[in-house]
Amino acid sequence: MTRTEYRWLLPSAMADPELPDDRLRGRRTVRDWAVDITAFLIAAGIGLLALGTIEADETTADVVVFVDSVVGAVACCALWLRRRWPVGLAVALTVLSAVEPVAAGALLVALFSLAVHRPFKPVAIVGALALALVPLQPFLRPDPTTGYLASVIFGALLILLVISWGMAVRSRRQLVVTLRERAHRAEAEAELRAEQAQRLAREAIAREMHDVLAHRLTLLSVHAGALEFRPDAPAAEVGRAAGVIRDSAHEALQDLREIIGVLRGPGDADEGHRPQPTLATLDALVAESRLAGMKVALDNRVTDPGEAPAATGRTVYRIAQECLTNARKHAPGTEVSLTVDGGPGQGLTVVVENPAPTEPFERVPGSGQGLIGLTERATLAGGALEHGPTKDGGFAVRARLPWPAP
């Protein structure tokens, strides 16, 4: 238990916050009426027992019995004010009980209510006053059936018991309030964490969209530009370019459907979704780029690409895809070399290089987010990625990814 939790359990003056029911509400609830009626009946019952003891004493005058009855009834009725003025009522009944035994029941109820609805300091002050006046009542109105010392001890024990019980009830209510606040706080924090996780998931999806769709859309841009600048091209070449545009658009739609599918519920998943790319599908990526007119030299030195870990193979594929897309946009007409080397226990090394373009071309704007996404992918996979211009004006990307030994 922490120090803060312990302070909630102790009725100390330093840590005793106000409870929701410490102040009088505008209107009593059904529960308030039930509690108030019960308190009135308990006080009246104790007062009737005290009045019966007084009437049993033949030396007591009738006028004294009548006055005691009236005072006891007024004290019990005054308990209906205990929610509005608990401290003042407890002090008044404490003073009254010093000379009036019939008001003892109302005093006990008032002290209990005070301990429940007020912090420790006023309870301690009123309780000390009640204990100080305990010896006065049996001295002024002695009970013929009970000794003086026994009356004092019994009265003090009753006061301490009632106050302790009230303080225990208040501590329990404080604990319940604290646990309820913590539950609300935990729910709010859980909602914030869920929103943050959703935001991070959306950012990851956005990066995935960039990596996947940029490759397809670049193919569309290249072939559409070729058709635009060469309207007199042979029909076979135009047909081939149109076919690549159609296939690239279809693949882009498939990739988009695959990425958006992660936002669907478990029962809404598309049964026809395609498998994620791996190191074994790297040849298909290179073939697709060559079909689009790129010059790509692939040197895959991995003996068995199908044995590579799925996450590592997918990362290699995305790195190659993004690098080919960037080369197609920023260095068209150059030959891109793609080298993959490594094995179990050695890790995987991916190197993509392209020389500086030698012919003028229309530059395609780029955001630079692709290389940032590749760096994050490599880091999340447990590796590292470096990129930058080469000495001859080209560009190179080097990545090192783990491949644990079997």
UniProtKB/TrEMBL annotation:
GO molecular function terms attached to this record: ATP binding; phosphorelay sensor kinase activity; protein dimerization activity
Q: Which residues form a coiled coil?
A: 180-207
The reaction(s) this protein catalyses: ATP + protein L-histidine = ADP + protein N-phospho-L-histidine
What is the residue range of the signal peptide feature?
A: none
* Start and end residues of each Histidine kinase/HSP90-like ATPase domain: 314-403
An annotated GO cellular component: membrane
Quote the Pfam families the UniProt record gives.
DUF7134 (PF23539), HATPase_c (PF02518), HisKA_3 (PF07730)
Domain Signal transduction histidine kinase subgroup 3 dimerisation and phosphoacceptor residues, every copy: 202-267
Ranges annotated as spanning the membrane: 33-51, 63-81, 88-116, 122-140, 147-168
* Superkingdom: Bacteria
Q: Does the keyword Oxidoreductase apply?
A: no
Quote the InterPro entries the UniProt record gives. DUF7134, HATPase_C_sf, HATPase_dom, Sensor_HK_TwoCompSys, Sig_transdc_His_kin_sub3_dim/P
Keywords, in A-Z order: ATP-binding, Coiled coil, Kinase, Membrane, Nucleotide-binding, Phosphoprotein, Transferase, Transmembrane, Transmembrane helix, Two-component regulatory system
Domain spans labelled DUF7134:
23-173
EC code: 2.7.13.3
What name does UniProt use for this protein? histidine kinase
Its taxonomic path starts at:
Bacteria, Bacillati, Actinomycetota, Actinomycetes, Kitasatosporales
